[in-house]
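RECORD TYPE: inverse folding
INPUT: C-alpha cells
STRUCTURE:
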C-alpha cells in the first residue's frame, strides 16, 4: 500500500474521536483539508472560511445546523436546499412579499429582532414599536427561531440574539430578510467528493470553528 492509500484507509475506518486523537493523522487532515477547502468551498465561504455576502462564517463556533463533525458531514453529504433527496431544508418565509404581515408589522418585528442583539436600539421613542414587534415575534417567528430567539439547528433557523448575521444585522438587512424571506443554497457534495474527502473536510471545518472562542 502506498502512503496515501494507507492514510485514506485509516480515515475511512476510524471514528472522528480516534482520528482527532492521532496527531500525525490530524496533520494530514489539516493539509489535505486546506487544499480541498480551497478547491471546493472557498469560492462561497472565503479561503479563511469566514463567509460574508450571504454565506455563513464557518470559522466561528456558531452553527446553523448544530456543532461537531458528524453534523457537518451530514450537511456536506446532502447539502442545503439542494437537489439531494435527503437535503437539509432551510425555509425562511417571505412574510412581507407573501402578505402574511403588513409593512408596519414587518418594521415592528424587525425593530424587536434588532434590539435582541443590540439593546441600545430600543429607546424611549420606539419602545411601543418594539413591544408590538415582540407580540408578532411570539405568534409568527417563535415556532422556528424559538421563544427566546436562540434558533433551532433542526431547521437551520439561526440564533437572532448573538449579533452574528448571515444576511447582515442592519435594520434594513433585517427588514429585507423578513420581507423577502431567505433560502440559502449549498450544493450536495455526495457525487463530487469521496466519503473520505467529506470526512476530512468535516474535521477541517470543525477545527476552523474551534480556533476562535
Ligand atoms: C455555492 C456556494 C457554496 C459552496 C461552493 C459551498 N457552500 Fe457551504 N454553504 C453555503 C450556504 C449558502 C450555506 C448556508 C445555507 C443555509 O443554511 O441557508 C452553507 C452552509 C454550510 C455549512 C453549515 C454551516 C452551519 O453553520 O451549520 C457548512 C458546514 C458548509 N457550508 C461547509 C461547506 C464546505 C466544507 C464546502 C466545500 C466542500 C462548502 N460549504 C461549499 C454555500 C456554499
Ligand atoms: C418556518 C420557519 C421560520 C419562521 C416561521 C421564521 N423564520 Fe426566520 N429564518 C428561518 C430560517 C431557516 C432561516 C435561515 C435561512 C437561510 O439562511 O437559508 C431564517 C433566517 C432569518 C433571518 C436572517 C438571519 C441572519 O443571520 O441574517 C432573520 C432576520 C429572521 N429569520 C427573522 C425572522 C422573523 C422576524 C420571523 C417572524 C416574522 C421569522 N424569521 C420566522 C426560519 C424561519
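DESIGNED SEQUENCE:
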Amino acid at each position: 500500500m502506498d502512503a496515501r492509500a494507507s492514510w485514506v484507509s485509516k480515515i475511512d475506518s476510524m471514528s472522528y474521536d480516534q482520528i482527532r486523537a492521532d496527531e500525525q493523522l490530524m496533520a494530514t487532515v489539516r493539509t489535505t483539508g486546506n487544499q480541498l477547502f480551497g478547491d471546493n468551498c472557498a469560492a462561497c465561504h472565503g479561503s479563511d472560511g469566514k463567509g460574508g455576502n450571504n454565506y455563513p462564517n464557518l470559522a466561528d463556533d456558531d452553527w446553523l445546523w448544530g456543532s461537531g463533525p458528524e453534523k457537518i458531514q451530514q450537511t456536506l453529504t446532502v447539502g442545503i436546499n439542494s437537489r439531494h433527496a435527503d437535503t437539509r431544508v432551510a425555509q425562511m418565509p417571505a412574510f412581507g412579499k407573501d402578505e402574511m404581515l403588513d409593512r408596519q408589522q414587518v418594521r415592528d418585528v424587525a425593530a424587536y429582532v434588532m434590539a435582541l442583539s443590540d439593546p441600545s436600539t430600543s429607546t424611549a421613542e420606539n419602545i411601543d414599536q418594539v413591544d408590538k414587534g415582540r407580540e408578532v415575534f411570539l405568534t409568527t417567528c417563535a415556532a422556528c427561531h424559538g421563544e427566546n430567539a436562540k434558533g433551532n439547528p433542526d431547521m437551520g433557523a439561526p440564533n437572532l440574539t448573538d449579533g452574528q448575521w448571515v444576511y447582515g444585522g442592519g435594520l434594513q438587512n433585517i427588514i429585507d430578510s423578513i420581507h423577502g424571506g431567505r433560502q440559502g443554497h449549498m450544493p450536495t457534495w455526495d457525487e463530487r467528493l469521496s466519503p473520505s474527502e467529506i470526512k476530512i473536510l468535516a474535521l477541517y471545518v470543525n477545527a476552523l470553528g474551534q480556533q476562535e472562542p
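NOTES: Residues 90-93, 95, 109, 113, 140-141, 143-145, 155-158, 160, 165-167, 174, 177-178, 182-184 surround heme C (ligand 2) (CB under 6 Å).
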